TrEMBL record:
It comes from Anaerosacchariphilus polymeriproducens. The gene is pnp. NCBIfam families: polynuc_phos, PRK11824.1. The lineage of its organism: Bacteria, Bacillati, Bacillota, Clostridia, Lachnospirales. Residues 223-302 form the KIX domain. SUPFAM superfamilies: Eukaryotic type KH-domain (KH-domain type I), Nucleic acid-binding proteins, Ribonuclease PH domain 2-like, Ribosomal protein S5 domain 2-like. This is Polyribonucleotide nucleotidyltransferase. PROSITE patterns: KH_TYPE_1, KIX, S1.
């Protein structure tokens, strides 16, 4: 049965249509926010997937370029693999949804969002987040929702909720907050050094709006919601846990995990599994569950040690970081390099500089953003965790980590006017044991300064974790979590920033939300840790950007010309500018307002190109001295090219102070000569003289 529901959300109408389309999905809603339209569906398999120990959730965000009236570029006029924005949006939708499904649910679930129309003032990403939450809530799929999501901007010091396109362009904050009925469940932010208190205020202002949206969703569920279906639980039987504890007492399990060496811990756990498999070899049903049972036993042990005994697996105090180190200039020929090490997490970031013409072009749903000047890429090879698997290119996790580091560093980058380069940083994970994304932010800050990129301030990142007990007051927040504490804990709260404020946040949790005291403590602890990293680890290595780019980096000089002269520099079909490039070996970029950037490695070649451009764009005046090459000889004189595409003539009477009968008696093709400008002749050609060149 078709039903339509509407509410006013941040000054625009949000309409949810149920039963109009996609009736065969478990849950489907046709979402309208302004003129943005997204079809959100939730589907689940009938039976659990066999042989897995995780919840198989897939989230898709499909961008269709017809939504903004575009045909895909390139030879293939069909949308291809998901764009970076689509991948990042899928991850943001996934994070608040995943914790609300039953932990023992193993049926495949797919949340699909098809973007069909885009109103620049009504975010399709936000519409899809709401759509996935509503489609799942009204479906028969087990789900402890609903959730709601709000975006927050900061324009002229005032919060703006679900900002429009103009407000986004002028905002100092890009914050996305998802909530359940009681708690915050997801935070994602990019910010221009927003103070911690202001960020907390923004988070909970969004949380209040989310409560209004949840009330709206609950009305939809009350009228259209299906009864949740039963499912086969994949929980480990209590009898197996009891049998395992008899063979491996809690003290033995605690001794196995209590080490700061990841490899030692993994070896200890392998021995325990082998011991149990040998003991239960006659019980095939239990044999299949041993890996999951040991995982659960290990998890309970770690959580009990931390929460009850305040004892971390590697022996650190609750707010103590692992051993830290930083260095720069590891690689001699690159433009800049920096390495940051935190315990068994080690990242090396390499910076590469190029002309602005090498900025990344973007073909997506954002009409305003067509290129990206700063690119951060993150790689996570299998050797970094002691495993072996073929490299298949970056996955969603790698793309997400790269985007997080990029977001953290953008606020401190110089403008193109201050530093006319395209910038790429690549973070290579050498070793991983927790929070490599934040280590890549630290390494990238070091690398950029080493490369001579004049960033305004250094940026550092750190992650806090969480272990909760039976009630909201029973919890402990951990500074600098390692992999084990991330796997077995309840939260990975990443915060990056400078001394003066936050530049990026990403929060992942595995429980049904965080209370305000937990959020405030996590942000406070990351501030303390970030300050320590900046002052004690990074600043002693390099505290500000080098004054010049490195020896092997391209150099860029700029000249402003009259925009009406751009055509003279480019020439017919690019003939003039290509000639300059061929003669000097430089790269040249020209903006519409006449700013010419000349990029090269040798200053002599760059200066030569600049001189050519100056000649081409200068209005010729009598008395100016030029050097040129004879390109043509006629009976009445010689033509010479004094800049690519620019020619003038020396009349035979102006070649020599003595009378000559033929031009060839003095000049030959290819001669390099110095001339003085006499102005323009009757035919409008530039006229030169050799004999009148001043002797000095």
């Amino acid at each position: 049965m078709y039903k339509s529901f509407s509410m006013e959300l941040a000054g625009r109408t949000l309409t949810v249509e149920v039963g109009r389309v996609a009736a065969q999905a478990n849950g489907a809603v046709f979402m309208h926010y302004g003129e943005t339209v997204v079809l959100s569906t939730a589907t689940a398999s009938d039976k659990p997937r066999e042989g897995i120990d995780f919840f198989p959730l897939s989230v898709e965000y499909e961008e269709k370029l017809y939504a903004v009236g575009k045909i895909p570029g390139g030879f293939n006029k069909r949308e291809g693999k998901a764009s970076e924005n689509a991948v990042l949006t899928s991850r943001v939708i996934d994070r608040p949804m995943r914790p609300l499904f039953p932990k023992d649910y193993r049926n495949d679930v797919t949340l699909n969002n098809l973007v069909m129309s885009v109103d620049p003032d009504c975010s399709p990403e936000l519409t899809a987040m709401l759509g996935s939450a509503i489609a799942t809530a009204i479906s028969d799929i087990p789900f402890n929702g609903p959730t709601a999501t709000t975006q927050v901007g900061l324009v002229n010091g005032e919060f703006v909720f679900n900002p429009n396109a103009e407000q986004k362009n002028g905002s100092d904050l890009q914050l996305t907050v998802a909530s359940t009925k009681d708690k915050v469940i997801m935070i994602e932010a990019g910010a221009n050094e927003i103070p911690e208190d202001k960020m907390i205020e923004a988070i909970y202002a969004a949380h209040e709006i989310n409560q209004q949206v949840i009330e709206f969703i609950e009305k939809i569920v009350a009228e259209c919601g299906k009864e949740k279906h039963d499912y086969t639980s994949c929980a480990v039987p209590e009898e197996l846990f009891t049998a395992i504890k008899e063979m491996v007492p809690p003290q033995e399990m605690e001794a196995a995990v209590f080490t700061d060496e990841k490899q030692v811990r993994e070896s200890n756990i392998r021995e325990i599994k082998e011991k149990l498999k040998e003991a239960f070899e006659e019980n095939e049903e239990w044999l299949e569950l041993i890996d999951e049972a040991v995982y659960q036993y290990e998890k309970k042990t770690v959580r009990k040690m931390i929460l009850k005994d305040q004892k971390r697996p590697d022996g650190r105090a609750v707010d103590e970081m692992r051993k830290l180190s930083a260095e720069i200039d590891l690689l001699p020929r690159v433009h800049g390099s920096g390495m940051f090490t935190r315990g068994q997490t080690q990242i090396c970031t390499v910076t590469t500089l190029a002309p602005l013409s090498e900025a990344q072009r973007i073909d997506g749903l954002d009409i305003d953003e067509t290129s990206k000047r700063y690119m951060h890429h993150y790689n996570f090879p299998s050797y970094s965790v002691g495993e072996t698997r073929p490299s298949r290119g970056p996955g969603r996790r790698e793309i997400g980590h790269g985007a997080l580091a990029e977001r953290a560093l953008i606020p401190v980058l110089p403008t193109p006017g201050e530093f006319p380069y395209a910038i790429r940083t690549v973070s290579e994970t050498f070793e991983s044991n927790g929070s490599t994304s934040q280590a890549s932010i630290c390494a990238s800050s070091l690398s950029l300064m080493a490369a001579g990129v004049p960033i305004k301030k250094a940026v550092a990142g750190i992650s806090t974790g969480l272990v909760t007990g039976e009630n909201d007051e029973d919890y402990i927040v951990l500074t600098d979590i390692q992999g084990l504490e991330d796997f077995f804990g309840d939260m990975d709260f990443k915060v990056a920033g400078t001394h003066d404020g936050i530049t990026a946040i990403q929060m992942d949790i595995k429980i049904h939300g965080l209370t305000r005291p937990i959020v405030e403590e996590a942000i406070r602890k990351t501030k303390e840790a970030r300050t320590f990293i900046l002052n004690q680890v990074m600043n002693p290595v390099i505290s500000e950007a080098r004054k010049e780019v490195g020896t092997y980096a391209p150099k860029i000089i700029q000249i402003q010309i009259d925009p009406q002269k751009i055509g003279d520099v480019v020439g017919q079909r690019g003939k003039t500018i290509n000639a300059i490039i061929e003669q000097t070996g430089v790269k040249i970029d020209i903006t519409d307002d006449g700013l010419v950037s000349i990029c090269g490695v040798e200053k002599e070649s760059m200066n030569k190109a600049m001189e050519m451009i100056k000649i081409i764009t200068t209005d010729f005046e009598e008395g100016q001295i030029f050097k040129g090459i004879v390109t043509s000889i006629k009976e009445f004189g010689a033509f010479l090219e004094f800049a690519p595409g620019k020619e003038g003539m020396v009349h035979i009477s102006k070649i020599s102070k003595e009378r000559i009968k033929r031009v060839e008696d003095v000049l030959t093709l290819g001669d390099k000569i110095t001339v003085v400008c006499l102005g323009k002749d009757k035919m409008g050609r530039i006229s030169f003289s050799i004999k009148d060149v001043p002797q000095e």
